[in-house]
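Practice record 12: protein with adenosine-5'-diphosphate.
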Amino acid sequence: MGETPSPAHGFPGRLLVFEGLDGSGKSTQASLLGKWLSAQGYRVFATEWNSSELVSSVIRRGKKKGLLTPTTFSLLHATDFADRFERRILPPLRAGYLVVCDRYAYTAFVRDAARGCDPDWVRTIYSFAPRPDLIFYFRVSVGTTLKRKLASRQKINYYEAGMDLGLADDVEESYEKFQTRLKREYERIATTDRFTLIDSSRSVEQIQAELRAHIRPILENFPTGAALTHDG
Ligand code: ADP
């Protein structure tokens, strides 16, 4: 099972990462891909970046009282990610699963850079996180994500809009400005981090077909096994 270790990280499983702005369609596609892989008999483990219990209450309290600086914010998120990595990502990777990861360290790189942290410092903190086998970057305009968000009646939250940075008084305006910063940062690292670019302005079906085509080489000689698991 999972006999051939990944050239990227040396574990028998494979790490497939989904990155992009909020509303770019990551979770929609990750869920479809997970089901498709599972239906073919692959052992899949799906995980998303939700705050772990370990630090979520600290982050919540810090946010409420406005106590967090970009540096302390970044360190708490790194702790959160390390917890997720060691509990949720590493074990299935060791056990030979296809790990479908909705957001990875790249999310921290772009968020922290947009908040003014030094990108090299942030990278050092996350040096425990190995390189994935594939990083899908869901490229879409900020305007499209805003339209999708408003259409789905999801509320824009304070931090998603970067309201703490004082970019604008209006939530929508602040959201556009902050998401534009995040996008600029994603675009800046897309080449050096070898992102697989996915034009996410297209239909759900078109995008899913492209993802399946990209993942085929990884599946060659990859063993099948038991059912779909999810950490939620
Ligand atoms: P993310 O996980 O990147 O935040 P979601 O998958 O939750 O994005 O999608 C955000 C919203 O956009 C949802 O309401 C979803 O139904 C819708 N959506 C997802 N993909 C597309 C697409 N390709 N075209 C139009 N709407 C989409």
